[in-house]
Amino acid sequence: MRRASVRVRAAVGATLVVALALVAAGFFVVATLRGGLADTARLNAENAARGTAAQLADVPDNEVGQLDGLDGDEPAQVVDANGKVLGASDPLEGRRPMADFARADRPDDAEKADAEDAEADDADDGDSGGRGEVDEDSENKILTFPVDDDGEVTYDKEDIADTQEFDVAAVQGRTRDGTPVTVYSGASLGAQQEAVSTVTRSMLFGLPVLLVVVAGVTWLVTRRALRPVEGIRQEMSAITASTDLSRRVPEPDARDEVARLARTTNETLAALEASVERQRRFVADASHELRSPIASLRTQLEVAAAHPELLDLDEAVEDTVRLQTLAADLLLLARLDAGERPAEGRVALDALVREHVAQRVGDPHPVRVGTLDGGEVRGSAGQLSRVLANLLNNAQRHAASEVSVTVRREGDRLALAVSDDGEGVPEAERERIFERFVRLDAARSRDEGGAGLGLAIARDVAERHGGTLRVEGPSQGGATFVLRLPLADGQ
Fold first, then answer.
1. 212-239: buried (b, 16+ CB within 10 Å) or exposed (e) per residue?
2. Predicted local confidence at residue 482, as pLDDT
3. 466 shares a domain with 419
4. Using CB atoms within 10 A as the burial measure, which of 106, 179, 257, 318 is most buried?
5. Are residue 391 and residue 327 in the same domain, yes or no?
6. Does position 407 have pLDDT exceeding 90, yes or no?
7. CA distances from 433 to 189, 427, 455 (A)
8. When comparing pLDDT for 110 and 415, which is higher?
9. What is the pLDDT of residue 108?
10. Same domain? 320 vs 368
11. Distance separating alpha carbons of residues 137 and 160, to the nearest angstrom
12. Are 476 and 364 in contact (CB under 8 A)?
């Protein structure tokens, strides 16, 4: 199944996150609002009950019904210890005590409450009765009363429009006659319910609109942010189609991840272009270098075929050896370019120098072996021997009278130095001589100077072993090639 684009996934993800956050925030806001309004209603009920109770101290039992706190439309009652209603607000006149409203929900008191309601209805000129209900799960007494269209408590059958919850508080007090009473006062929760309903409706209508806005903004922002990426993709596609590695992708002026991606892409293209160009030059130079010994060998064989007595066998063998050596050098360079790692082993450089120098015969200049400090390095003995051979061959071609070899410890490294007393290497050419097929002496023949691959192979092998190969010493009066390799562990 094809995956959606980054823009779509970002927009959907942002929308879902915002939706979850808004839903959680909505629940929190509604719960906080409901709790705050309930606390306010509870406080209002308690204040009203305390105010009525405070008035009782100056009122005899028979005048309790005339208290100012009982002349409102909110449910209020004054009940003595025997459950007799001494006074009540207009909506509750002739009704049983509020405490019985709560008990009416218990099965064992239901019949008693029904009988009391019936008696109260008969005494109230035919008004229809109602029984309050208590929310037993609530910490406070929440009673339900019938209300009219204005939200005021009523028990008139013609006026009842709905029911409404009231938070009822009970406060103890005494009349002037010393009678202990309980003052019940209720505060409507209608404002709370209306506010919660309004906020909930606003959230239900506003949430989809807000989510659409979030999705749209995220889409536009993501599209703008990814526009440079699309430019990079189009340019890379064009480069792939045209195979023109000199082209570069556009780099944004910003300093963000996309700009770094563009710069890294251009660096990769530059490295790839340099690699392809180096490979092209390598193939061209290799073809040129191979052409000479092959043409010479072919000429000698054709002459020998026509005139066997003219065959120069030594020269033919020499051309064949040159061709074999060049082919071996090219093969080694190809393996190094492919990333071939040297074999894991421990090589003692001092022993390698002694063995190699002892095997060299027929050199035009003597090789003097100097200080040989002990120590081992990790790598391939065959490849390191090849490096030493190439350095000695190069020194023999340029030396005036002598070549010297030393091995010294330099901290955690071993330094193998091959020196000659020749003309030296100019400062400007000390890096160029390590390029492939490079000869500083243009007049030197290929037979004397080689193909120009020895030093290039030596440096590549040194780098594969974690070391370095550089030219040191004065610009005139000899050159010293120094190979530095890290010591093996435990030395």
1. eebbeebbeebeebbebbebbeebeeeb
2. 95
3. yes
4. 179
5. no
6. yes
7. 95, 11, 7
8. 415
9. 41
10. no
11. 27
12. no
What percent of the chain is helix, strand and coil (3-state, nearest 5)? 55, 15, 30
Q: How many CA atoms lie within 13 A of 86 on its CB side?
A: 26
Distance between CA atoms of residues 249 and 183, nearest Å: 85
86 closest CA partner among 53, 110, 118, 109: 53
CA distance between the termini of the chain: 58
Which DSSP helix (H) or strand (E) runs through 36? helix 6-56
Which of residues 337, 358, 382 is at a domain's end? 337
Task: Residue 299: give its domain's CATH number.
Answer: 1.10.287.130
Q: Per-residue DSSP letters for 169-228? A: EEEEEE-TT--EEEEEEEEE-HHHHHHHHHHHHHHHHHHHHHHHHHHHHHHHHHHHHHHH
Q: What is the domain extent for residue 393?
A: 346-486
Six-digit token string for 301: 């064989």
Closest CA to 325 of 445, 459, 439, 451: 451
Query: Among candidates 252, 226, 260, 206, which has minimal Cα distance to 8?
Result: 226
CB 454 within 8 A of CB 390: yes
DSSP 433: G
What is the reported pLDDT for 139? 42
C-alpha 346: how far from its chain's center?
42
Q: Is the pLDDT of residue 216 over 80?
A: yes
Residues in the chain: 491
Residues 352 and 481 in one domain: yes
- Please write the tens of the pLDDT for every residue from 186-213: 888 888 888 888 888 888 888 888 888 8
How do strand 376-378 and strand 346-348 relate by DSSP bridges?
A: antiparallel
CB contact at 8 A, 388 and 399? no
What is Dmax (Cα atoms) for the chain?
159
Q: Are residues 318 and 395 in the same domain?
A: no
pTM as predicted: 0.50
